[in-house]
Amino acid sequence: MKAVEAKYGLSETIWDVDSQDWNGASTAAIVQAVGRLGNGQIILMHDWAATTLAAIPRTAQGLAGHGLCVGKISPETGRAVAP
After folding, report:
1. 30-58 burial by CB neighbour count: b if 16+ within 10 A, else e?
2. For residue 53, what are the domain limits?
């Protein structure tokens, strides 16, 4: 995998928390998974899962309540950073 990444100038980013939305997790379970995030951590979520879309308002509220925010992935470090 590393050779292919290098060949195309790509980098691999791995998540810290899996929301399990791909596995049929409920909206409540996804919100609970987001609650396990810490500063700079990444959660795996998919935009095709209806339960994930339903979790977005509560997810945003929960992150803000813990002083966290939605961020971006740094191309230099491959880690999450605040916008």
Report:
1. bbebbeebeeeebbebeeebebbeebbeb
2. 11-81
CA distance 71 to 23: 25
Please check whether residue 18 lies inside any domain of the structure: yes
Helix (H, G, I), strand (E, B) or coil at 46: coil
Residue 59's domain is classified under what CATH number?
3.20.20.370
What is the residue-level pLDDT of the chain in tens, covering all 83 positions?
Answer: 889 988 998 878 889 999 999 999 999 999 999 999 888 888 999 989 999 999 999 998 988 888 887 888 887 777 778 77
For the chain, what is the domain count?
1
Contact 49, 34 (CB under 8 A): no
